[in-house]
């Protein structure tokens, strides 16, 4: 598929209305770990969050822009993630939250982002209900990462992340229970957990699951 074909398919298949209420997560960490639900309160209130899934349009093809979080953060310290965070009271919707967070975290000017739509809402084991907002980034932007939150910004070819051959299912011990998760190692970068789960959802949406 050409870059234009991929872009057209993404824009066609990702429905901007398909992000659902915060009380009804579609997918998440528990899909691979149904036994882990017993570790967490069944009546806990999920905190709404949004991330930007940035697809950078290069002449050579699409890439996915990712960040590596700093080691001192409370949630997901040191992990590879999309720009994003909690939806604040002043945010109009998940799109506004994702664009605001991307501006705050990596200095991305929202004028370079063309929103394509949404992936399925994602529930993390840390108690967040995440709306992934997919957007195309026009080259020419400059980034100024916040050193308090972002240790590194990098790009990975979309074709690599969508290839099932580059997708692994790994596990770790969590409070005496084996926890399973997706992982997509890329060079020095270890993409796993919720970020990898959202990328698997993107692949499914594109017929590459």
Going by helix content, strand content and strand pairing, the class is: alpha+beta
If helices are DSSP runs of H or I spanning 4 or more residues, what is the number of helices? 4
Could you say which overall geometry the principal axes of the C-alpha atoms support? globular
Distance between the termini: 16 Å
The main β sheet shows up as: 9 strands, mixed
Quaternary arrangement of the chains shown?
A: single chain
Q: Report the mean per-residue pLDDT as an integer.
A: 88
Helical residues, percent? 10-25%
Sequence of secondary-structure elements: HEEEEEHEEEEHEEEH
Level-1 CATH class name of the domain at 3-14 and 46-159:
Alpha Beta
* Proportion in β-strands: 35-45%
The low-confidence parts are none
- Tell me the Rg in angstroms: 16 Å
CATH architecture call of the domain at 3-14 and 46-159: Alpha-Beta Complex
CATH topology of the domain at 3-14 and 46-159: Nucleoside Triphosphate Pyrophosphohydrolase
- Tell me the number of strands: 12
CATH superfamily of the domain at 3-14 and 46-159: Nucleoside Triphosphate Pyrophosphohydrolase
Essential attributes:
globular; 12 strands; 209 residues; nine-stranded mixed β-sheet; alpha+beta; 4 helices; Nucleoside Triphosphate Pyrophosphohydrolase; three-stranded antiparallel β-sheet; single chain
Detailed description of the structure:
There is one protein chain. By secondary structure, the chain is an alpha+beta fold. The chain has a domain at about 5-15 and about 45-160: Nucleoside Triphosphate Pyrophosphohydrolase (Alpha-Beta Complex), CATH 3.90.79.10. Helix content is about 20%, strand content about 35%. It is built from four helices and twelve strands, in the order αβββββαββββαβββα. It has helices at about 5-15, 95-105, 160, 195-205; strands spanning about 25-30, 45-60, 60-70, 80, 85, 115-120, 120-125, 130-135, 150-155, 170-175, 175-185, 190. The strands form two sheets. Strands 1, 2, 3, 4, 5, 6, 7, 8 and 9 form a nine-stranded mixed sheet that branches. It has a three-stranded antiparallel sheet with strand order 10-11-12. A hairpin with a 2-residue loop joins β11 (about 175-185) and β12 (about 190). The longest helix is centred in the middle third of the chain and has 13 residues, at about 95-105. The chain is globular. The model has no long low-confidence stretch (mean pLDDT about 90).
